């Protein structure tokens, strides 16, 4: 992609990424929408912590790409998804940066969820599957 204009203009603005050392799960109405041990936590000044799940660990059959987009000066163009799960439809409840700016290339194709704006969405630590 290219360098982030936000980081160039405001180098003091922090957008930090770290791998989560635990298996995480996204639930809506008791239904699992995503579960992964490859989650990136993003801590950005002025925003709540966000968990980014790899697309292959998200139930994409429950998500529908919407026409909504937004541009973050630090991460790039976000594309939004509505979710059907737990007997409900949540509009623009998740988003992804398909081609993020270079500084955040690890987020490419991952999905984050609006658990702070939509209380139906729960992001929790998941128990590791039992070895049998």
Number of strands: 10
| CATH structural architecture | Beta Complex
Count of structural domains = 1
CATH class: Mainly Beta
Percent of residues in helical segments? under 10%
Task: Enter the CATH topology name.
Answer: Metal Binding Protein, Guanine Nucleotide Exchange Factor, Chain A
Low-confidence stretches: none
Q: How many helical stretches?
A: 1
Judged by helices, strands and strand pairing, the structural class is mainly beta
Largest sheet: 4 strands, antiparallel
Task: Give the end-to-end Cα distance, rounded to a whole number of Å.
Answer: 44 Å
Outline the structure in words.
With 132 residues, the chain is mainly beta. The chain has a single domain (5-125), classed as Domain of unknown function (DUF427) (Metal Binding Protein, Guanine Nucleotide Exchange Factor, Chain A), CATH 2.170.150. 4% of the residues lie in helices and 47% in strands. The chain contains 1 helix and 10 strands. Strands 6-7-8-9 form a 4-stranded antiparallel beta sheet, with no helix packed on it. The protein has a 3-stranded antiparallel beta sheet with strand order 1-4-5, with no helix packed on it. The radius of gyration is 15 Å and the shape is globular. The termini are far apart. The model has no long low-confidence stretch (mean pLDDT 93).
